[in-house]
């Protein structure tokens, strides 16, 4: 069976090639007056990777372009707006017609970004074609703030996690997980799997929920620390009682 990718279904004018994407990144960096080294320090992405991406020599994975976008203060709408389009603040309902998303082919996945006209969204929806067939090494695992959801439209995928676990999903299956855990997708069906996915930014509620277990643990430790001197006092009192008894016996 012939394998197809996302761009095969999309208007060619809606495809964001590496060169155009690289120029967009470089323009945003230059506008801020930043060097490659400064952007690398802020994003955690190597200078070499950023340089090659800016020159259109390298396709970035999700974690890298998400980290670079965050450092440049660009959201997905701005990074993946169609040619000649400028993302505007999100204010009302947005419709993306069939096959009218903006396609960017990354290292393992061809993404069709939806609703790119809006900047500042809390969610980034995509239709994706997973073209990776194997886990080739630790570098393929993506990790980024927020949460991620995937629903399989066709084919089958395996979602591998950096802790060694993996989940196999068939058509109609879905998965929701913490995107901070390293993860990678591969197609395991004869045809390349197509999915719809949503990633979220890390909200204040999410940060609060994640901080709760640590806060509870801290309070427990504090209570134990307060209780500890009392325990010693009891031991001291008992020791004194024993000493008094010893004196009486001696007498």
Topology:
Layout: H1 18-31, H2 36-43, H3 47-54, H4 62-71, H5 76-79, E1 88-89, E2 102-105, E3 109-113, E4 118-119, E5 123-130, E6 147-154, E7 157-161, E8 166-169, E9 174-178, E10 183-187, E11 193-200, H6 204-250
Parallel strand pairs: 1-4
Antiparallel strand pairs: 2-3, 3-5, 5-11, 6-9, 6-11, 7-8, 7-10
Helix pairs in contact: 2-4
Protein name: Transcriptional regulator, XRE family with cupin sensor domain
Keywords: DNA-binding, Plasmid
Organism: Cupriavidus metallidurans (strain ATCC 43123 / DSM 2839 / NBRC 102507 / CH34) (Ralstonia metallidurans)
Could you explain how this protein is built, in words?
With 251 residues, this protein is an alpha+beta fold. The protein folds into two domains: 6-202, Jelly Rolls; 204-251. The protein is 36% helix and 22% strand. The protein is built from six helices and eleven strands. The protein has helices at residues 18-31, 36-43, 47-54, 62-71, 76-79, 204-250, and strands at 88-89, 102-105, 109-113, 118-119, 123-130, 147-154, 157-161, 166-169, 174-178, 183-187, 193-200. A six-stranded antiparallel beta sheet has the order 2-3-5-11-6-9, with no helix packed on it. Strands 8-7-10 form a three-stranded antiparallel beta sheet, with no helix packed on it. α2 crosses α4 (62-71). It is globular, with a radius of gyration of 27 Å. Residues 25-79 form the HTH cro/C1-type domain. Keywords: DNA-binding, Plasmid. Pfam families: Cupin_2, HTH_31.
